[in-house]
Design brief:
The chain is mainly α. It has 24 helices and 18 strands.
Length: about 625
């Protein structure tokens, strides 16, 4: 009750109220109802952004900008003259903003060009609607979207998928639909769904979820205008097909020899969006070799004055780690760009099945593509990819059988290269060393979400391997054994043990339910929601980016720490995908489980002795 009272007083102060009347029900509101209500009615609103004249001052603020230049800048894509003129008009009408409006070249993701923008970062324009201006004319208005929160104040790729799942639970279909509209716009103008909508992300994407996101939204659209709904889905599927062919099964991401796709973005130099000291330990030996400071070396390396092939290789893999969404983890250290990961193959299998299903069920087994681009060879081989001739996207209609053939082929590749019968897990495959990487990752369960695991593989995963990842607060990213020993020289990474992230939880809950393991899904959801609920109760409403799921703590000391924990008295926004995890997780709860959560009943009490938990390794954490 005291926590609720303090939060209500803080909210009253936010609204400059000197007196408030509170009913007893609000003060005694149980934590599950309270947190879910705050997410639905308050947090989503606080995380909403728009890129237009009214929203620019908020969205252009970038906590990751280390250039010292704070004047807002917006980059408008080539081929959108009306949008460019709109922002120039905003700059004229709001001179106090000192808004710099720049138009990008036709190919905005050239690595040398993108690197040239590092000293002048800016927000990237997104989709807009044309509306009446109230004066008899027309103007443009930004389509609203949800940002993750804290230092991530822009539209992100895979964050947005999980955020959309929470929005759909909360009935905010229009908001989720708008985020797909932005992804369609990004694919058209920037060539991919971007890691994030800032200039320094132009070369990078993130894990692909567009087809599932679009289909889930389509199924919840108002049925009064089905023609409009089908047209909207058509645009989303057309965009996904372009992204699939030009990004995910195009070189260098595609390895033609195996048929595996990889996270392998272009780019030059040191990623500018990281914390100032993030790469110091990596750069110091090179700086000493050249007898200069780390800062001077960084500048000369970025400018191409100093050549260091070993460092080029390091940053190739570092950029791939960031494209994977799992930045950072020892699973990917110095090898990510060479890996055909189980997570990416699962997502692309889902793309192939979703596209085939949409073409067959919604578009009468014929879908014409409107944009012109190269289609990737199929089936993939070294010879077919070496042939410069490419079939064009508009040369024929798309039919479902081709996409189901692609899905069947990918399933064969997954079984051949990634499944390990002895260890009862899927593993990443190193396409250069031509071997499996035996790092145990919870993404081994993503084939359940995608539907590409056999019933036998699923049974082995659930009965033999799940216990390796299950801890008191849900599932950890990877096993303690795979992570290895931690020391001052080898610090923890935030996507390794013992940390738990919302995407891994949600993917596993949905995957288990898909294969009929509902009780296991409910147990894992209860664990994670218990951790969230007790943190919310004990720490005045905290809803962070991630958790230490072993200690049930939001106090994370890996890398940049935690996000979503810097607030006074009451949380105003939580954190995007953590908010969603709570709302989605509650849909797995029975009424009995929800009451137990509200009473903060420990999983060990609710489910009995911790029979499903893997005993911890001995002497795993060793300090220097």
């Amino acid at each position: 009750m005291l926590s609720n009272l303090l939060q209500e007083l803080a909210l009253a102060r936010d609204h400059n109220r000197k007196r408030i009347v509170l009913d007893e029900a609000r003060l005694t509101e149980n934590p599950v109802d309270r947190l879910s209500r705050m997410i639905q009615n308050s947090f989503w609103h606080s995380l909403t952004r728009r890129i237009d004249g009214d929203g620019l001052e908020i969205i252009t603020a970038d906590p990751k900008n280390r250039t010292g230049r704070v004047n807002p800048r917006i980059y408008v894509p080539h081929g959108e003259p009306a949008m460019a003129e709109y922002y120039r008009q905003v700059a004229r009408e709001k001179p106090h903003m000192n808004l710099d409006v720049q138009v990008l070249p036709q190919k905005p993701d050239d690595p040398a060009f993108v690197k040239s923008l590092n000293s002048k970062p800016g927000i990237l324009a997104l989709a807009m609607n044309e509306i009446d201006d109230g004066k008899g004319g027309k103007t443009l208005k930004g389509i609203p979207f949800i940002v993750p929160g804290a230092r991530f104040n822009e539209l992100y790729n895979w964050d947005s998928y999980f955020i959309a799942l929470g929005l759909l639970v909360d009935g905010q279909v229009t908001m989720a639909k708008g985020m797909v509209d932005h992804f369609i716009f990004e694919i058209k103008h920037y060539g991919k769904i971007l890691n994030g909508s800032r200039s320094y992300y132009l070369c990078r994407t993130q894990p692909p979820f567009l087809t599932d996101m679009a289909l889930q939204i389509y199924n919840q659209l108002d049925r009064s205008d089905m023609d409009a709904n089908r047209q909207w889905l058509k645009r989303a599927i057309q965009a996904a097909i372009k992204e699939y062919h030009t990004v995910w099964v195009a070189e260098p991401r595609m390895d033609p020899k195996t048929g595996l796709s990889r996270y392998r973005p272009d780019g030059l130099g040191i990623p500018p969006e990281t914390e100032a000291t993030h790469f110091t330990q990596i750069l110091e030996p090179f700086a000493r070799k050249h007898g200069i400071s780390v800062l001077e070396f960084s500048e000369k390396y970025n400018d191409g004055i100093i050549k260091e092939p070993a460092l080029d290789e390091y940053f190739l893999h570092d950029r791939a780690v960031r494209e994977s969404g799992h930045d950072t983890t020892y699973r990917f250290e110095k090898r990510c760009a060479n890996l055909g990961t189980i997570d990416l193959q699962s997502l692309l299998y889902k793309y192939e099945v979703d596209i085939g299903t949409a073409i067959r069920e919604v578009f009468d087994d014929e879908l014409e593509l409107e944009e012109d681009f190269d289609l990737a060879p199929f089936p993939p081989s070294v010879e077919s990819y070496a042939n410069p001739h490419r079939e064009k996207s508009r040369s024929r209609v798309q039919r479902s059988d081709e996409w189901f053939d692609r899905a069947d082929f990918r399933k064969e590749v997954i079984d051949k290269y990634l499944w390990n019968e002895q260890k009862n897990l899927f593993f990443d495959y190193d396409t250069v060393k031509e071997k499996q990487i035996l790092y145990e990752s919870v993404t081994s369960f993503w084939p359940l979400w995608a539907g590409c695991a056999t019933e036998e593989q699923c049974w082995k995963l659930v009965t033999q391997s799940l216990r390796k990842f299950e801890v008191l607060g849900g599932v950890v990213s990877g096993t303690e054994e795979s992570r290895g020993k931690i020391s001052l020289e080898r610090p923890n990474r935030q996507w390794d043990y013992p940390y738990a992230w919302p995407p891994h939880q949600i993917m596993l809950w949905v995957g288990l339910e898909r294969y009929g393991y509902l009780e296991e899904a409910q147990r894992l959801a209860y664990r994670f929601l218990y951790m969230m609920t007790t943190a919310f109760v004990d720490f005045n409403g905290v809803v962070p980016e991630k958790f230490d799921a072993v200690k049930l703590s939001h106090l994370v000391d890996a890398e940049y720490g935690n996000q979503g924990i810097d607030f006074k008295m009451v949380p105003r926004e939580g954190f995007g995908w953590m908010n969603s995890a709570y709302q989605v997780g509650l849909t797995f709860m029975t009424s009995h489980m929800r009451r137990a959560l509200a009473a903060c009943t420990s999983p060990e009490v609710f489910f009995g002795a911790a029979a499903h938990l893997q005993p911890p390794m001995l002497n795993a954490n060793v300090s220097a």
